[in-house]
Amino acid sequence: MAYNTETTFAGFSFGHRFAALRTEIVEKLAKRKVYRSTVAELESLSNRELADLGLSRSMIKSIAIEAAYGN
After folding, report:
1. Between 33 and 16, where is the model more confident?
2. Cβ of 42: how many Cβ atoms within 10 Å?
3. Is the model more confident about 16 or about 7?
4. CA dist., res. 70 & res. 18, Å (int)
5. Dist CA 65 CA 59 (whole Å)
6. pLDDT by residue (tens digit) across 46-66?
7. Measured at the alpha carbon of residue 69, what is the angle toward residues 18 and 28, in degrees to the nearest 5?
8. Domain spans of the chain?
């Protein structure tokens, strides 16, 4: 008795998956760039300038995370 087995993949092709991965990497790199630039800009300010903005040096990383990632 002979069996005919046809297997198909119900998802995206390799090209689509690769494109999605590339897009995800580009988005993550862009967010990382926003984080780094925000940290650099805030760290370049003096303590007086940060105080005028109502910030302290300990808040710089959390503000940069919120600016880049929205958390």
Report:
1. 33
2. 19
3. 16
4. 26
5. 10
6. 999 999 999 999 999 999 999
7. 25
8. 37-71
